[in-house]
Batch of 4 targets.
Target 1
Amino acid sequence: MIQLAHLEKEVVRICREVGAFIRKEAAEFDRSKIEFKTGFNNLVSYVDKEAEIQLVGELKKLIPDSAFLTEEGTVQTNAEQEYCWIIDPLDGTTNFMHGLPIFAISVALAQNNKVILGVVYEVTHDECFHASEGGVAACNGKPIRVSTISTLNESLLATGFPYYHLDKKDVYLEIIKLFLEQTHGIRRLGSAAIDLAYVACGRMEGFFEYNLHAWDVAAGAFIVQKAGGKVTDFSGISNFLHGGEIVAAGAVHQQMLKIINELWYKK
């Protein structure tokens, strides 16, 4: 039987070890080795791929018969397994390649499609956000909670700008405009995993974005939930893991959802 508290510690250890590799590569990164996945702004490097290989190799030792859902697809596994690791080896690749020190490792574990463990390791500042079912959300071992601020006009929000489905860009910009008028501001950090981790520890009151993948949000969303926050898709239901839309927040979640709903689903 899996001991989640012990597993959480092991995943934190593994993320820190792989993070050390990423940190070393960041100091001497060769931009000539940048690759393009599906467009000029969807980038990948040998660092992403090697970090993923290292993560998969170590996590496989923890649960030998587990499956993997990974961004870079360096491993092919049976998705029907009871346990599945959901991995983004370097969330914030564009930041990394430009020397902007905002990028993270994101690792979640799902059991029968339900996330039960999440780790987001912010590499540059050595901050590890982590949680498991039955425990509490923490950063570097210290408990964290979402913000208790209950009004948008006192809130700081985060979002991202999607690379695809740009047919929705105008309505999305309208949503951003409304939030800019009603909050302390909006930040675009370039890493959904870090955005979610910062919501979990109360540095920002909420995060919203669309066109995301499971590996972008699985770990961070789980940590937000364990920190007392609420996570939904734009319609307010729980289909955020594979649905591509996410709203994560503390006390302002419903207020954010109302503004997004009124514009996103407008005929």
Target 2
Amino acid sequence: MNLARRLAAEALGALLLAATVIGSGILADSLTPDDAVALLGNTLATAAMLVVLVLMFAGVSGAHFNPAVSLVMLLAREMSVRDAALYTLSQCVGAVCGAMLAHAMFELPLLQTGDIERSGVAMALSECAATFALVLAILMVRRARPEAVAWTVGLVIAAGYWWTASTSFANPAVTLARTLTATFAGVRPADAPLFAAMQIVGALLALGAARLFAPEKGHERIV
């Protein structure tokens, strides 16, 4: 596929992902005062959309939707520096547009400032662990059962909502989008840089682990 088509797929996928994360959080929060129930609704919607997005766009762009994944593909020599940079830009632009779409659908100000504090060592460690689990799952499952990658991604994120203190952002582009919403899924802009840094660390650790477990297959596509 030509580069423009791949970038459009990455932007649209990130848009729909961010819109789902934020929009489902808004709706869930409006329907119940119970945070656990709201989080469950947020989890199910996000995981379901991830499965669908990977199934739709895997054959077009590789279905990254995540700068941490694109970085790993670059380091695995499956992408050029130019393509990885353009993927990252497209993902970030798409995610920001997704936040705006979610707000528009619920008649909220299009751009807001996140106000939920998610700071500290536990949150940082959670993002590292969540991204490690996501990227390692992608790298390992695509070697053994490439047709199962979409379901794997959805399940890892669904689990991450509940086993990590941060609720598993695991994506710098989505983290950026979540700084622009003062809703259930938001995060303070001041907390985002550490989140993004630890997501990158988690992705790099996952790449190292994948090379340890399957060093003979280090140059395959994501799906």
Target 3
Amino acid sequence: MTMLTADQIKTTAVLGAGTMGHGIAHVLAHSGIEVRLYDISASAVEKGLASVRANLDKGVEKGKVQAADRDAALARLSGSTKLDEAIAGVQCVIEAVPEKLELKQKLFADLGAKLGPEVLLATNTSSLPISRIASVTPRAERVVGMHFFNPVHIMALVEVVVTERSSQAAVATAVALGKRMGKEPIVVKDSPGFASSRLGVLLGLEAIRMVESGVASAEDIDKAMTLGYGHPMGPLKLSDLVGIDVRLSIAEYLEKEFGERFAAPALMREMVQRGELGKKSGKGFYDWKA
């Protein structure tokens, strides 16, 4: 069978109910697609579903989402802790589990064995090689990266990451699906850090070095980029939102690929050791407890 088009996608599975997973599920459901949100624990699934409800409620309160559209989106959304149940009969799977290559490969080997070649398999990894994730599947040509940005229901960009084995049909379906979700897709070669992480992490690392050496406060460094360059968010606040531990992991990977310009500052490692991971821990470069 040939790859299904984006218009033929009626049911999807999102694997991983964390920050990125529930955000992807939110946007898929809001765009008219049935979504099954999967995670290994019931509490994670419920937390993810609750976050989608809260974000849709906030959209209604701000007048950006109609109450009827919120209700319809929630009706399309369900949760599961059983992988086989979540992927049964789907036309697309988007994986958003933690950034561990072995974990992603295990999932994709399972998906490749259980789902037909017409089903699009996408990973939301922000830096891991798509080709290595795809290598464990019987049909690597239907695997692409679909790298979304946090918060998914607000950020417009999705990177469609293409390996040497990704078929033109799979890429076209991923791009069209991104547009159907209201996103602006860009197509990027499967290269370490893709476009966004490679540039964004480098900017973030330099901003951390500036804090470390006392050039300016985190707030003023961020203002330099938001007011001086028109960035919607400064690199330090963005690091807090992504997770400083997550950015450290990406930096370590990129340092292996590109050298010392991606070396993590000592301050970054110290913050991770202290548990100052950003918004999710309540403290990073900013105090999020308030």
Target 4
Amino acid sequence: MIFLIAIVTGTTVFIILYLVSAAFSVKQEQVAMRLKVIDENLADRSAIDAELAKPFAKRVILPLTDQFGKSLAKLTPQAIRRIMAEKLAAAGGFGGMGTDGFLAVSISLALGLPIVTGVFTILGGAKADKIVGFSLIAVSVGAAIPYLLLQRKINSRKTSIQKDLPDVLDLLTVSVEAGLGFDGALAKLAEKMKGALVEEFSRVLQEIRVGIPRRDALHALGVRANVPDLSLFTSSLVQADQLGVSIGNVLRVQSVAMREKRRQRAQEKAMKAPVKMLIPLVIFIFPPIFIVLLAPAVIRIVMTLGPK
């Protein structure tokens, strides 16, 4: 009897506690909703952290320059914008800026640098003519700095493309002769090598994949890079595509020709080296040698012929 009472009491207490917990507990849908809200907050927080992790230039400066550049785009002639777009493409980009951003930076420097120069010259107590002169020089310097940096990057990229071209052609030749198509050889090239030229060929591959004809993509590569050897190579590929010539033969011939040209350029630089060495030799080496050799004789002549 006591055992039965204990079982009934325990069961009753369990049922009461279950009902109370069920009445006051949060439902499963509410839990799922709260978890979803937490996940969304975490996602928003991760996006904020990712944005804050970017460099200051990409978070603040680039949006401002793009905004300013869009305003200037209405005032800039289309010919200038086209030339700047071609130069930026030849340089492979310039700090992530587009044409509008680059023009905005150039105009900002051309306007901001003379203002800073004028303030410093005024604080230094300079005269009005000197203030105007220094400000005009600052305008020229501020406008020229971005273009000089851009041209330097273009020249460096052209040198890199010209240097890597024979090795790239060797890999393309081996890939094509191994049975890959030209598109597959470009994909293998992007996988195995790095550099400015590989980036350009990767862009060609992407253009072909989105539907641009191969000859148009190769022609655009030659115009964009503006490297004579690469332009000759792309013209040969376009001509081979038009005439139905085997690309493997063209690649093999062009690879040998590019290596020969690189060897000739190295020989040309080696032949120019002695001529270039004459200038420092005459200015910095001959005078000390003359002093060391002739100074004792000059001193002795002066002592001999001088007054006793």
